[in-house]
């Protein structure tokens, strides 16, 4: 097995994870719309529940897309330019993830959950 075939294999793995990320986002949209249309409105309101469901699907999809970018950059094209581009992509997607986290849960990941908001408390320590 030569280096080119290994790189091609990692490229295929990266593309498969990219496709999984896109499918997760699409599935998140379908689930969010399904819950909006076929479930009674929750206590926090149908629109807010829809936004939270949609945000969760996008967040999970972003995690897959970042993983695929990392695999392709490290294993396929490990140049300084590709690593810098990866760094920029990770920074942008991290910002998007934090913004979506704020939308979905109303708090940043490192903040404690407020009593009675339905989220499990964040362990300290």
Write the layout of secondary structure elements.
Blueprint: H1 3-38, H2 46-76, H3 80-105
Helix pairs in contact: 1-2, 2-3
Main traits of this protein?
single chain, 125 residues, mainly alpha, 74% helix
What does this entry show, briefly?
This protein is mainly α and 125 residues long. It has helices at residues 3-38, 46-76, 80-105.
Overview of this protein structure:
With 125 residues, the protein is mainly alpha-helical. The chain has one domain (3-105). It has helices spanning 3-38, 46-76, 80-105. The N and C termini lie far apart (47 Å).
Measured as a percent range, the helix fraction is over 70%
What characterizes the major β-sheet? none
Q: Which residue ranges are poorly predicted, with pLDDT under 50 across at least 5 consecutive positions?
A: none
Work out the helix count: 3
């Amino acid at each position: 097995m030569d280096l080119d075939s290994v790189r091609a294999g990692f490229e295929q793995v990266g593309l498969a994870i990219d496709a999984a990320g896109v499918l997760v986002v699409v599935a998140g949209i379908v689930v969010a719309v399904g819950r909006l249309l076929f479930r009674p409105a929750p206590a926090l309101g149908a629109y807010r529940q829809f936004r939270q469901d949609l945000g969760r699907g996008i967040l999970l999809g972003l995690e897959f897309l970042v993983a695929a970018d990392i695999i392709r950059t490290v294993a396929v094209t490990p140049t300084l330019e590709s690593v810098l581009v990866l760094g920029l992509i990770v920074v942008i997607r991290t910002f998007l993830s934090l913004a979506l986290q704020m939308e979905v849960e109303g708090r940043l990941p490192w903040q404690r959950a407020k009593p009675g908001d339905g989220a499990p408390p964040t362990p300290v320590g």
